[in-house]
Specification:
61% of the residues lie in helices and 5% in strands. It has 155 residues and is mainly alpha-helical. α1 packs across α2 and α1 crosses α5. The protein is elongated, with a radius of gyration of 22 Å.
């Protein structure tokens, strides 16, 4: 379920923060829109229609935060060592502009990162609530215990 929530977060962040910054064309546009719009929608549909339930727990929700936290910490440690020159200025590579310390400073990056974590908690909480309100569904291949059996007719 972490992947499902992650895909939804990716779609939201891309649509609201990243997409307005560039306009891909051709195959890049097809790949970009498939990855950032179609995949998150399909992840939600798959969760609603086919995923086993219940799968979410409050503990899993909090554990899920470790993924973006590790990514942010790693990026902030690693990126100062990756230099490039732009317009005669030495810069450091950051994967997204909203965590670019060169442009924004550590304070703004901390606020932006906290915003993504809050969004993750909010979306994860929605899935947690849905998971416990929707009817249970067994895992594929799980043994299901029947409560009644029909008599077998001999021929």
């Amino acid at each position: 379920w972490i992947l499902t929530v992650g895909k939804v977060i990716t779609g939201i962040v891309y649509a609201t923060v990243l997409a307005p910054l560039w306009d891909p064309t051709g195959w890049q546009r097809i790949a970009d829109e498939t990855l950032h719009y179609t995949v998150p929608v399909l992840a939600v549909v798959t969760y609603l229609v086919a995923d086993p339930r219940p799968r979410f727990s409050p503990r899993t929700l909090w554990t899920m935060l470790s993924i973006p936290l590790v990514f942010i910490i790693y990026t902030l440690i690693r990126s100062p060592f990756i230099e490039y020159t732009k317009d005669g200025e030495t810069r450091h590579w950051y994967p997204y502009h909203f965590i670019d310390v060169d442009d924004l400073g550590y304070g703004r990056v901390a606020i932006n990162s906290a915003g993504v974590l809050v969004l993750l908690l909010a979306v994860g909480s929605v899935f947690l609530i849905l998971d416990h309100r929707l009817s249970p569904r067994p895992k594929v291949g799980a043994t299901v215990q029947l409560t009644e059996t029909a008599p077998i007719k001999e021929s």
